Structure prediction request, 445 residues.
Amino acid sequence: MLMRDIAQALSAELVGNGDLNIERIVPPGAAMQSSDLAVALSGDAVATLASTKAHAVVVSRKHASSVERFESVIVTDQGRTALATLTVLFDGGPARQAGVHETAVVAPDAVIGDGASIGPYAVIGSRSRIGARTSILPHVSIGSDVAIGADGLIHSGVRIGDGVLIGDRVLIQFNAAIGCDGFSFAPELGPHTRFAADVTVQRVHSVGTVIIGDDVDIGAGTTIDRATLEATRIGRGTKIDNHVHIAHNVTIGEHCLICGMVGISGSVTIGDRVRLGGGVGVSDHTTIGTDAVVAAGSGVASHVPEGGVVSGYPAMPHERTLEIIAYLLRQKRLWREMEDLKVKVEALRQSKVEIKAEPQ
Amino acid sequence: MTEVAEGVIAVIARRVRVDRPIGLQDRLTDLGLGSLDAVELVFDLEEHFDVRIHYNVNEFQAGFETVRQIVGAIEHLLAQKTGKA
Prediction:
């Protein structure tokens, strides 16, 4: 790809030779030849440009003056967004061929869209529909009555249960499982109530489904349970990391970021643009408001308001968590001062000074 | 650089990973310190200088943004302590 075309794709300024052909994007230190484009969008990367062998470089506007010696330079105002666009340009994606591989098992009444790819040993159930240009990689199993939109990419080992609905341009990474039965049992008990000794725990079957909006990413090993009666929903544009668990009846809004190892219990409602840091746990039937941020490792035990920033266990406003940590850190000093006081009181007592109690 | 400034920088240096000297003009955020690091830093400083820093999240963030501000605050606290003693 020519530097001119890359600059155009980034809507960025090109300085120097636009005809230079680029084959790889690399950090400055890894550039080996003129066809390598050194990506120096951070201050740290710019610092390594002095010794790079690259002829071409992409930098942020604030570093434009430090790259005058290069044959071809792209100057962008977009920072990390430019990096996102660059990686799309140079990511060829996994190997795949249009059409249905001879070892795939596709139900006769399944509908495969134009240009879609069904890889080796994939299974597509009855009445399921795979959208145009969507790639189903090897060893994916898709149940019956599933609908997957156009331009999706379903990586190897993904399991999608019956009746799950998935939008356009959805990316599902290795071994994700969507449409599992929910962890729901009867009788339902309050948090501090014990089962009777002769209890029989009955499974509440999940007869609902999962509905995933357009442009959603689902990470490797992530599991999404189907709803008891209706649908577990993931809103448009939401990105979910690896090893996240989303339980039955959960509703997640649009453009959320859910980091790795998050666990969301049943019937939780999450607004739009919410960010959950790594390892966050969310208790069942709680609500997390739009634009809220939950810090990594927090345990959400009650509702989080719109725009709230919470942390800790149980999760509470971040400022309060910091104050509590401050109290805890002060304990050591407090006890030391207590010991000093005890010594002083004892000294006073031994000097036979009468200490009168304050009148009540 | 004063003894207090050197002490403050030494305490901060234990919490940050930058491969350059820490200067008075550095902001805690530039050194990669988050709000949680900052709370712990307060108590590191209390231990190191044997002073008590008034801690309130909002006030603290406003007055403890740069290394220079922290040095100023510690010098003030040490002066108060000496005055009392």
Q: What stands out?
A: The mean pLDDT of chain B is 87. The longest helix of chain B spans residues 67-84. The radius of gyration of chain B is 12 Å.
